[in-house]
Write a structure and sequence with these properties.
heterodimer, A: 8 helices, B: alpha/beta, Glutaredoxin
């Protein structure tokens, strides 16, 4: 089976600068009509993976990200990628597209006693496409230095987690969500550091959606066997009008500034 | 200011393509608010408030040295025609007042940069942003936050804070006038003694 990276580098533009305004037409990708009329394929399967671990960064938290994977037995091709917090070479938390070496550790379920949390949900193609749109937008923000919270990588990750998980239920309830809104009932946010919130939300979502979790035994064998293999470059869609207008931005990483003298 | 404000492409209510920084903000004093055409709660109230303010106190300045821009929070729904209809409905097609729509990515960037409360719940609720206003003075490199629902006096005061700095003789004259008011109050009420 071949493995390619996710199309994260595509520019997500819903360009409203032409004459094509209006609510998404029925059946268009991203619309609820397309989800309602979607028929599962015999060969293609789509997964959303919520993954997090502990004890990697100086504050005890660890990488936490949203991962997408799809596999098609007919073409023997798999596509996967992730966006969120991961560790750079100095074990600092950075936000953006997660290197495959990091998310590879989450292709298989963590063993007993592991510090990792993994919730793997099988989703429909329209859900996959919508969450992919969110990941692309965040990847672009990270690259173009336009994060919505410029001074706090963990806030961006919390917002990504909120957007991606809530997107699953946009058209109909498919997962039992945790209300991540810093409201009076959001005890996870209330009682924990921002860096730990995604992990704890994933744990809570796993508890609530235990029956929806796809164990290794129900995963396509070809997908799991890809662990450790370097992905091929992602296919790039043709640039849009807006992409042509924007000058390419230099790659940029965001990291948490640690107090002076903090040992890693 | 150029590095804080995305110079993204937008369209006006007249379907004219503009760059947010280059064409709308650069070298100007601009009031920025967000709204969307189908909003039935805060947006119409905030627009009505600004129309009142325009007629009461800003008509002489609008379009000359003071500008107003309303940016759609739902650009995928609000085309230029929808914005124009909204502006007409609220009698807001006034000199110096522009309604803009663009793409969601740029609108979100702008919304978080201008109006973020650093709070996941509030920041993801677009209705929480209507009524909030940023007053930007690009040449002076200053911006101020104001609430459209505040009193006329308060909003005008915020606009004044962002006004270009006056010359020294003008400021001295203003100070003398203020001092006269203080002296008059003291004559009438005396010094307030604090225990």
């Amino acid at each position: 089976m071949k493995r390619v990276g996710l199309w994260l580098r595509a520019v997500t533009v819903s360009v409203c600068l032409g004459a094509s305004w209006g609510v998404l037409a029925g059946g268009a990708p991203g619309s609820c009509e397309s989800e309602a009329s979607w028929e599962p394929s015999d060969t293609a399967r789509h997964f959303l993976v919520l993954a997090a671990s502990r004890g990697v960064f100086y504050n005890g938290s660890g990488p936490s990200f949203i991962m997408l994977a799809k596999t098609d037995a007919a073409t023997e091709e798999s596509e996967m990628g992730a966006v969120g917090i991961h560790a750079d070479e100095k074990s600092r938390a950075v936000f953006g597209t997660v290197p495959w070496q990091t998310y590879d550790a989450f292709l298989h379920e963590p063993g007993k006693g592991s510090q990792n949390v993994l919730l793997r949900l099988q989703i429909s193609e329209p859900q996959y496409e919508r969450v992919l749109g969110i990941l692309r937008a965040w990847d672009r923000r990270a690259r173009e230095d336009q994060l919505l919270y410029p001074d706090d990588v963990f806030m961006n990750n919390i917002l990504l987690v909120k957007q991606a998980t809530e997107e699953l239920n946009r058209c109909r309830q498919t997962v039992d969500l945790y209300r991540l809104d810093w409201g009076v009932n959001d005890e996870i946010s209330d009682n924990n550091a921002r860096s730990r919130v995604p992990l704890l939300v994933f744990e809570e979502l796993k508890r609530r959606n235990a029956s929806r979790h796809v164990p290794d035994s129900n995963m396509p064998k070809g997908l799991l066997s890809l662990a450790g293999s370097e992905p091929l470059p992602a296919r790039e869609p043709a640039p849009t009008k807006e992409a042509a207008i924007r000058a390419p931005a230099p790659a940029h990483v965001h990291h948490v500034h640690e107090p002076a003298g903090t040992a890693h | 200011m150029a590095n804080l404000i995305p110079n993204a492409l937008f369209r006006t209510q007249d379907n004219k393509e503009v760059r947010l920084y280059d064409d709308i903000v650069k070298d100007r004093q601009v009031m920025v608010m967000m709204m969307y055409a189908t909003c039935e709660t805060f947006c119409p109230l905030a627009t009505k408030r600004m129309v009142e303010l325009h007629h009461q106190a800003l008509a002489q300045r609008m379009g000359k040295d003071l500008f107003m821009v309303n940016i759609s929070l739902k650009p995928e729904e609000d085309d230029p025609a929808a914005l124009k209809a909204y502006a007409q409905m609220h009698s807001a097609l006034l000199p110096g007042w522009t309604f803009l729509t663009g793409n969601q990515h740029d609108v979100d960037t702008l919304r978080y940069r201008f109006f973020s409360h650093d709070h996941i719940g509030i920041d993801t609720d677009i209705d929480m942003h209507a009524g909030s206003m940023k007053i930007i003075n690009d040449p002076a490199g200053r911006w101020f936050h104001a609430d459209a629902f505040a009193s006329t006096r308060t909003v005008l005061e915020h606009i004044k804070w962002s006004d270009p700095q006056k010359s020294l003789p003008e400021r001295l004259k203003d100070n003398r006038m203020l001092q006269r008011e203080i002296d008059r109050d003291i004559d009438v009420y005396g010094y307030r003694k604090i225990a």
